């Protein structure tokens, strides 16, 4: 009976450990190299257009400033899109960012990106 209980506890522990190892909170650093003040930065799973809350909770992001944010990332789904809004009230998109490959994200000049008005 003790062996059965031990086996059951071991199996449950293994299941919990396995599921938590696939999805972990990671800290990322975003640097604004866009050449303008940003009024918002948001993230969405690749091509989902499901933009969450503003990642920079302290307000605008100045030129060449950085901030950190925490994101839960599943190692089987690492690709995300990043949308940032400039002081010109336009949205810019950095697509297909692999959050599993790097913990540093640099937002480039708008001239290098697709822009749309919303």
List the helices and strands and how they pair.
Elements: H1 2-22, E1 23-32, E2 38-45, E3 66-74, E4 79-86, E5 91-98, E6 104-107, E7 114-116
Parallel strand pairs: 1-6
Antiparallel strand pairs: 1-3, 2-4, 4-5, 5-7
Describe the structure.
The chain has one helix at 2-22; strands at 23-32, 38-45, 66-74, 79-86, 91-98, 104-107, 114-116. With 118 residues, it is α+β, with helices and mostly antiparallel strands. It has a four-stranded antiparallel β-sheet, with no helix packed on it. A three-stranded mixed β-sheet has the order 3-1-6. A hairpin with a 4-residue loop joins strand 4 and strand 5. The radius of gyration is 19 Å and the shape is elongated. The protein starts with a helix and ends with a strand.
Describe the structure concisely:
By secondary structure, this protein is of the alpha+beta class. 18% of the residues lie in helices and 42% in strands. It contains one helix and seven strands, in the order αβββββββ.
Please give a handful of descriptors for the protein shown:
118 residues; alpha+beta; Immunoglobulin-like; four-stranded antiparallel β-sheet; three-stranded mixed β-sheet; 1 helix; 7 strands; elongated
The Rg value, from CA coordinates, equals 19 Å
Summed up, the helix count is 1
Which CATH architecture is right? Sandwich
SSE series = HEEEEEEE
Largest sheet: 4 strands, antiparallel
């Amino acid at each position: 009976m003790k062996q059965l209980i031990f086996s059951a506890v071991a199996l449950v522990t293994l299941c919990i450990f396995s599921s938590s190892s696939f999805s972990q909170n990671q800290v990322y650093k975003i640097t604004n190299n866009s050449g303008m003040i940003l009024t918002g930065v948001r993230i969405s799973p690749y091509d989902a257009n499901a933009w969450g809350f503003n990642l920079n909770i302290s307000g605008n992001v100045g030129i060449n400033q950085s901030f950190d944010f925490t994101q839960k990332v599943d190692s089987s789904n690492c690709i995300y899109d990043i949308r940032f809004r400039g002081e010109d009230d336009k949205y810019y998109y950095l697509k297909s960012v692999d959050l599993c490959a790097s913990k540093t994200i640099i937002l480039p000049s708008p001239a290098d990106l697709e822009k749309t008005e919303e």
